[in-house]
Each structure stands twice: as structure tokens, then as C-alpha cells.
Amino acid sequence: MITLLKAKTLFLSCVLLVTVLALPSLQSARAASDDASIVSTSTLEGRMAVFDDVWETIQQRYYDPTFHGVDWQTSRTTFRALAAKANSPQEFYEVIRKMLLPLHDAHTRVYAPEEKFDWWNPRFITLGFTIREVEGTPTVIQVDKTSEAARNGIRSGDVLLNIDGTPAKEFIKQKLQKPGLASDASTRYRAVANALEGPAGSTVKVEWQSKVGKTKSATFTRFWNQRQLGFSSQRANDFAIIKIDAFTQSLALEFTKALPGMIDGVQGIILDLRSNGGGDAEAMADVVSPFLEDDSPLGKFVDRSGASFELHSYLRKLWPTASAINLPIVVLTGESTSSAAEIMASALQTKRGAKVIGTVTCGCVLAIRSRHSLPDGGVLDVSEFDYRTSDGVRLEGLGIIPNEITTLKRDDLYEGRDRTLELAKAYLKERVRDDKQ
User: Fold this and answer.
1) Cα separations (Å) of 132 from 193, 198, 202, 242, 347?
2) What domains lie within the chain, and their CATH numbers?
3) Which pLDDT tens digit goes with each residue over 158-168?
4) What is the tens place of the pLDDT at every residue in 396-408?
5) Of 142, 148, 220, 368, which has the highest C-beta tally within 10 A?
6) Is the pTM above the cut of 0.90?
7) DSSP string of 266-287?
């Protein structure tokens, strides 16, 4: 996400926030949002008020005045009629999401009042495990050790066979056939990852196959879970392995304080951004600055009017008497590497000569000026800025192409093997050896 928090601060994490004045035509809706009880999407009047607020906000703020070729006026007519007929607030918000799908924009999103998303303290609904396609098959890639799924024996590497009585591959195929859903790899990845989503408290019956070929089944209940964002470090073979989950001002401050100790005496650095969805752009600039020359350009954000904001590194602000760290660097990326994390990976790859290993990143590098409150207490995020690197490359829809691409294998999941990290260590070991010769 990328967010522009002030005139000089961008927030990237599949979203961007900036402080702005309320749009004149939306003043009444904004006033209503101060008291969520005024509007309820259980009523026709409430649904129309929220729908119109969403549509008009996107109409006035969206960074691309052509809406990626979508006829936004026709969308209003079509989906307003569907919104009016919605039988519940949940069905109403599903109509809104279907209207947004043709924009093919991971940043422009809507949240119902009960779904409000605090990016600094991510809270999400889960079954206790996550899935993706591995070797062409829906596969479990991560399991919450304390979850009902773990207690029922689901393990990373297990293959999903049936979901609510439908063959898993067919179930995924149906999810991917939603109108407006793009067929690119990044969109497919997100669609598969979200295939099991549903309201908290609802259930889903899953049948899966274990490592030894045994078929198991169980019914699981979706529940709210919280994710803690931060950074961590460890050492291996005289290399520092630093994992960064996000970019916030507090995290950037703690990171720059801890960095000298994390890299003291090491011969190379591995920066793991595989689970980093982005965050505050200025915080990202603080995190990447020690690795770049002072005032290195990090790209430009431009809105629909042509107004722009350039981002730079700030080495001298952080370490006035220090030089940029010149140790060899490897950056690890994955499909979940998004927005500000993609900007960081790009800057290190192009300006620092860092080797990027992993998979192509999300290609989700737009920015949100501010989170818009809806009349019923829901929230709308709207992409208001496009981004290009300092070399003029647009990363949205493209992502970062690794210098070395890795492929996840089911056997590696069962064995707990991280081939991407292994390749990074091997590269640094060879690089250090060559530098000494």
C-alpha cells in the first residue's frame, strides 16, 4: 500500500494517503459519516446514499480520468440498480466490489463498517491457513499453529481436493470467472489467496490430501485474526538476514537505530521483503536511505491534474556523519511484495546493484490521498496517484522482475525448505569470495 499522509509524505502498501479538504459536493455525506447511525444500508435510502458517495468520490478523485477504459457512467446505472435490490448490507457491499473489479486496481477498495481496516494493525478474517497455486494445484502454504486447522492436521504442502463439496480446482476456477477480474498473474494470485474468504463466524468444509496421500476432511469456522507488523534480523554465515514486514514512521525510527548493530561485522545483507505490503512512503525512504547515496531520487507520484511529488533518500538526515552502507545486498521478493516495498526493491536493484531473488512482485504501485469515510461508517480507499521510477518506469501492473526467479515446490513446503533464501546465501558467499580474490 502507498499512502500520502501529508504534502511531503506518501504511504505505499497497495494504498496512499494524503490530507485534503473534503470535496464540496460530498460535504453532506461527510457530515453524515460523523454519525454512522444516521445511515444504514439495510434501507434503500441508506444504500443509495452510500453507493452515490462511493461512485462520486471515485469519479472526482481517481488518478486515471479514463478509468482504465471503464465506462464509469454506465457502471453507475448498472450497479446502482443492483445496489438498490441488495437484500442485506453484505450483499450491498459485494455489489460495490463488483463495480470496482473492472478497474483492475488493488488499491481502490471498500470496507463495510464492520470490516474497517487499520493498516498499522492489520485485522483480517481467516480459516487459520492460507493457500496459493503450487505446481498448478490449490495448496496450503502456511498454517497458524494455534488454529483449528492445525489441530485437525492441515500442514503446509497439503493439497486441497474439495471446498464445500466442489472440486477445489473448479471452485478456484469459478472464483476467477468473476466479471471484470483480470487474468494477469498478480490478480490471479490475489484471487486464489482470497478464494476462501467469507464473513466471520461462517463455515467451510474442506477436504485435503496429506503428504502421504491420505485424504482428510473437516469443517472450519472463519475468525478474526491480528497481524503484528515489524522487522526482525538473524545471522547466518556472516550474513545479516533482515525481514521487514511494512513501513511505518515508528518502525523506520527503530530500524535505523537498530541497523548498525544488525550489520556489525557482517559481510553481506539479505533484505526479505516477501511479506511486505508497503506502508508510509517517507518511512520507506528512511529505511532504504542508509543503503543509498544521499538525495538519491526514488521516483515520482503524479495525480490526474498533473500535480506531482518526488521522493528522495535521506541519508544525511538519518546519519549526518556516515556514508552509505556498501556491503553486497540481496533482496528477496514475492507476489505479496507490494507498493512501497516494490519501490524499495526497485531502487536497490537499479541504484545499488542489489540482486533480487524470488518471484515477480505484485505490480501494485498506486497511491491513496486519504481514506474516505462513508455515510454508514464504512471506508473507501481511492487511488489518486500514479507512480514511476526515477528512470520513468511505471511499476503498476508490471512489478519488479527478479534477477533470479524461483519457483515454489510442494516438497519444499513439507520439508520447510526456503530455496529463495538458500540462493541468496549462496550468491553472497560467492560474491564475498570473489571480492577477496
Assistant:
1) 6, 17, 21, 25, 28
2) 2-115 (3.30.750), 123-226 (2.30.42.10), 231-365+388-436 (3.90.226.10)
3) 999 999 999 99
4) 999 999 999 999 9
5) 368
6) no
7) -SEEEEE-TT---EEHHHHHHH
